Amino acid sequence: MGIGDDDACNTGLVLGLGLSSPSKPDHNQTPRKIPLFLKLESTSFGDEPSLTLGLATHKVDVKAAVGGDLYRQGSSLSAVYSFSSGKVKREREVSSEVEKNNNSSRISDEDEEGVNGRKKLRLSKKQSALLEESFKQHTTLTPKQKQALARQLNLKPRQVEVWFQNRRARTKLKQTEVDCELLKKCCETLRDENRRLQKEIQELKALKLAQPFYMHMQGATLTVCPSCETTRGVGDSNNPYSMASNPRHFYNNNPFSNPSAAC
DNA sequence: AAGCTAATGGAGATTACGTCA
DNA sequence: GCTGACGTAATCTCCATTAGC
CATH for A126-208, among 1.10.10.60, 3.30.700.20, 3.30.420.40, 3.40.50.300? Predict the structure, then answer.
């Protein structure tokens, strides 16, 4: 979130900088690309909290007279919330990392990036390989693992974290595509099965038309499978029209030809 | 121009901590 | 002093999206 965003504006808190962006005076960048950060540091009990305003590598310490009951005031609360969002956190993380790893060439690149806008990092093959290897072992990282990996790769922990996030997203996307393909195949199989069954129905209907009297009698001798209660035509040995008289006609594929054993 | 992917911002969940009754 | 409820801030992950290469 940039200082000029609506959230900040709505708080009634006006923050004026007595300097224009030193390296990009006239660039129409979105506010979030200007690496400002505002940090409210808690201090020892009784002291005034320290409000630190940072611009790229430059820090301006402002002793803010923040009342102790700030958090209980409704209107101020929104201001507190707006400044406690992730951006502030990330900038703090970055700044602490800068302090910790100021020997890193990438960090100085990052500072430059902050001034000149978003510059996309390209991971080296070695870095990618190591990240992949690590991802194979565990798809999520503990903070310690993240720190260690970041040190090993000469990256910021946030960059490692982001890489893992994106990697997980790619994995998920791939899995979704695989699932989609599986469902397509499954759908195709069911469609084939449906076609086959429809065809079978047509054949049975044709057979019924060919032998109307026979089928009429069959309807009169319908019975129910005792196990699954499926209705089937069952031959009656006492019935002169029973299908049992010529079982090949209907029972070739009929699981209920022997009802007791069918289910 | 399109695809890949690093980076960003928002939302939700969880945790830690302080305050109050 | 202890405890539970509550509010707030910090942190994390996921997700959708943006944007650089």
Answer: 1.10.10.60
Strand C atom within 7 Å of A71 CB: yes
User: Which positions of chain C lie under 7 Å from any protein Cβ?
Assistant: 7-17, 19-21
Which nt sits closest to A167, CA to C1'?
A: B5
Query: Tokens 């979130």 belong to which residue?
Result: A1
The CA–C1' separation of A50 and B19, in angstroms, is 22
Cα A172 from Cα A167, distance rounded (Å) = 9
Cα dihedral across residues A254, A258, A262, A263: positive or negative: positive
Q: Which residues contact A228 (CB under 8 A, 6 or more apart)?
A: A262, A263
Share of chain A above pLDDT 70, in %: 35
The C-alpha atoms of residue A122 and residue A195 are separated, in whole angstroms, by 52
- Domain ranges, ordered by start, for chain A: 6-120, 126-208, 211-262
Pair A131, A115: CB distance under 8 Å:
no
DSSP element (H, E) containing A52: strand A50-55
| Interval A115-157: pLDDT, tens | 446 677 889 988 999 999 899 888 888 888 888 888 889 888 8
Helix (H, G, I), strand (E, B) or coil at A63: strand
- Quick check: A218 and A254 in contact, CB under 8 A? no
